[in-house]
Write a structure and sequence with these properties.
This protein is of the alpha/beta class and 320 residues long. The chain is built from ten helices and eight strands.
Length: 320
């Protein structure tokens, strides 16, 4: 099933703070979706352009795919590139994704979350917020730890943390140009630089502080991850630390987990690589999702059992 059999739609929704968030979805045409997939994009990125390949490929494979631009990202409202609270980002994603998953027509569909880079951190925090809600996660180069090459030294971090309280939106964090180190293909780098919805330049102080805080917190709590997951990482990644993805795979409490690494590939596996490399990565992602969608759903079975138990208790009470 190709992109001609995929329907694309856009919509704005209000978050709990009254801010407009941009949302989009890719739907398979003339086919009941196999499952729901919810996308979490990376830092400074957005859904409709940089996640378009992902949405189209997954919908073309029969999945219903939903994306949302975080506050301060893409077409959503807020200061571009500014993350005042990572907790707000996670809450916004939880609220929007669950509003889709809880629709009557979707209640019996499996639900997966898929995140790239910072979006991988969002996905893991969505799971922590509702441990039994998600049926699985696809984590592409997840931000479980920022690579040492991308981090300022500790003295600089201490100074920046103090300045964050005074000038949180200023763009003075000394880092490499993430576009040059994250995206292997020059044509993709050019597209990102020309995409007005992608944030360019140095990270804002509070944003950098929140990214560092969250990555350190996630790194320390990897053993708490308990949902089925597939983690993917390029072996030449200079943005997020592949060794921490290995620790995630080894230490997570999940009984159903898989890790794939890709020699020679960079950070952005699903957007920034050569087409033939992206084909390999999506083959692995779709095979994993197909396997999960095909072989039952313990969450749905448990919910149905609980529903039957409640119905049985109600019936027994009425007879008495």
């Amino acid at each position: 099933m190709g992109s001609e059999n995929v329907k694309y739609e856009e919509e704005y929704v209000l978050n709990s703070r009254g801010l407009k968030l941009f949302t989009c979805r890719w739907l398979p045409v003339n086919q009941e979706p196999k499952a729901l997939v919810f996308l979490c994009h990376g830092y400074a990125m957005e859904s409709s352009v940089s996640m378009r390949v992902t949405g189209t490929r997954l919908a073309g494979a029969g999945f219903e795919v939903h994306g949302v631009d975080y506050e301060g990202h893409g077409k959503s409202f807020g200061l571009l590139g500014f993350v005042n609270s990572f907790d707000d980002v996670v809450s916004d994603c939880t609220d929007y994704f669950t509003s889709i998953a809880e629709k009557k027509e979707n209640k019996k569909k499996m639900r997966f979350v898929m995140g790239e880079s910072m979006g991988g951190a969002v996905a893991l925090l969505l799971h922590r917020k509702k441990p039994d809600y998600w049926d699985g996660a696809v984590l592409s180069a997840p931000m479980c730890k920022i690579a040492d090459e991308m981090r300022p030294n500790q003295v600089v971090i201490t100074v920046l943390n103090q300045l964050t309280k005074i000038i949180p939106t200023w763009r003075i964090v000394p880092t490499q140009d993430i576009i040059d180190v994250a995206f292997r293909e020059p044509a993709v780098r050019k597209e990102i630089r020309e995409n007005k919805y992608c944030y360019k330049g140095r990270p804002r102080l509070k944003t950098a502080s929140e990214l560092l805080r969250v990555s350190l917190e996630i790194e320390q709590r990897l053993s708490e991850v308990s949902l089925p997951f597939l983690v993917l990482h390029g072996e030449e990644d200079k943005v997020t630390d592949i060794s921490v993805s290995r620790v995630l795979y080894e230490s997570a409490a999940s009984s159903d987990k898989e890790m794939k690494t890709y020699p020679g590939m960079w950070h952005s596996l699903i957007y920034g690589e050569k087409t033939e490399n992206i084909d390999v990565v999506f083959h692995d992602i779709i095979a994993w999702l197909d396997d999960k969608a095909l072989y039952g759903n313990s969450r749905l079975e448990n919910e149905q059992k609980q529903s039957n138990d409640v119905a049985g208790e109600d019936s027994s009470d009425k007879k008495q």
